User: What shape does this take?
Amino acid sequence: MIMGSIINYEFDWQKILSGQYLEWILQGFQISLSLMLLSSLIAVVLGVLLTFGQLSKHRVIRFISSLYIELCRNIPTLIWLLFFYYVFPELFSEPVKTMLNTNPSLNYWASIAGLSISSSGYIGEIIRGGISGVSREQVSAAHTLGHSQWEIWKYIIWPQAIRICFPPLVSRIIHNMKNSSLALALSVHEIVWATQQIESITFRGIEATIIATLFFLSINYVFSRLALLVEKSFLTDKKLINKTEKVKDVA
Amino acid sequence: MRKGIVFIFCLITASILLTGCGTVKQESILDKVLERGVVNIGSGNNTPPMNYIDESGNWTGFDLELSDAIAERLGVKLKRVVVNNKTRISDLANGTVDMVASNLSHTRSRDEQIDYVEPAYLWTGKIAYAKKGKFKNLTDLAGKKIAVDQGSNAYIAIQQEIEKVNGAKPDIQTFQSSAECFLALKQGKVDAFTQDSVIIAGVAGKEGVEYEPIGGVYSPGLYSIGVPPNDSKWRDKISFILQDLMRDGTYDKIYDKWFGPDGKFPLQPSAKPVLPKEAFGENQLYVWPD
Assistant: This one.
């Protein structure tokens, strides 16, 4: 039965790999990639800022940071996207509102904003988790030995924190790259939009879906291999030992 | 590395299986439906007045009441399946549903994939809708942003219509529902919204006073019931039932409730499938003789 249905589907790659359909697919690759990279980058930057906010001495900053993190984590990404597209421009008064609403790239930037905000909360928590994973004794020992705050961060906290938070950070970024397909709800012509559009016109949904699947699979596979490479070459124990030796030298 | 390739292969196979594929029909759907005692009818739920969820949370609309009547004539229970503009064709091709009544216009490209019941039960047409006084003719929309419900054939129809008159291509923005299209129009994100006139009337509702159709109807939207391909026994059965409903006045009753002069969404001119007045007289419905 199942085998039968595979054989009975006549794959027609020619149709969707030509003309306007191919154009949509290629454009989809580009837009998806730019959504993935830009939103991940912004999310990491925001996440680092959030971490500092969480660790701040000021109670107000700490409060704002944790409020922000809760909002990021507890609201679905799609809602963030829809918020930035439909609601955000309405918060402003007339000239700005119309300017935002009539801007042809509003959907793209609303997607970037939604994706990065949604991920930044997680990333902030991941980094904070890495930092709090570094034992307090080491920090107070370094204090006792007369190291400056900067040296403690540079030689003791960061090297270990990065090692702890790197793998979850990579997973979260991959998650964010997959989330980029949500932008289709805002008519951003990314790859899943292209496949849906092709399906709704040609009804060759399977071919189009296979292309999108392979795209996500290969992009995320390459990214996670690269991340593993980075982890192995820069964040292994060997390097860490070197760093701790440096600390000894400084001491 | 080889393991990776095998893994990718497995994933592709799985995705093919999950997407579902057309199957060979050995027996007619009619026999299967009667045997099960249940007919699966696909309808959408976000296109008022054809199919939508009303204020009190009921799934209702013209398509749903028509399918109720058809299921009743078949003498089987009705199981509703939610479809949307993008899934309704593949659901039919896969056999997920036995028929689709979901503001489905009869188009050639769709007819290559599925079959249609005769006649089209609602004769409507596409209009482009914009702020009053902003545009005069459809060609004014060349180069402008136009909202389209993704999966609607308006995507192709409006471009052809505008290009025909040698205008520049419009910039089509696709949304996931007609309500989102209208919201985008209200907020000024797009210059116009194009869809079948009956859907626009339903979506715009009372807010419609600020908007108007630009030019006239530009592409016929002949709403028809879709059925899986290559099953003429089933297709005939539903066609006969639909025509029986038209003959005995059940269709008129449903039509008047929704689109009649005192209906929920009065339609002017009428969208009833009637034969030309000159040849057949007033209100002669499109029904095959015995």
The first helix of chain A runs from residue 2 to 8. Chain A touches chain B at residues 1-2, 4-6, 8-9, 86, 89-90, 98, 101-102, 104, 106-107, 185, 187, 193, 196-197, 199-203, 205-206, 209-210, 213-214, 217, 221 (CB under 8 Å).
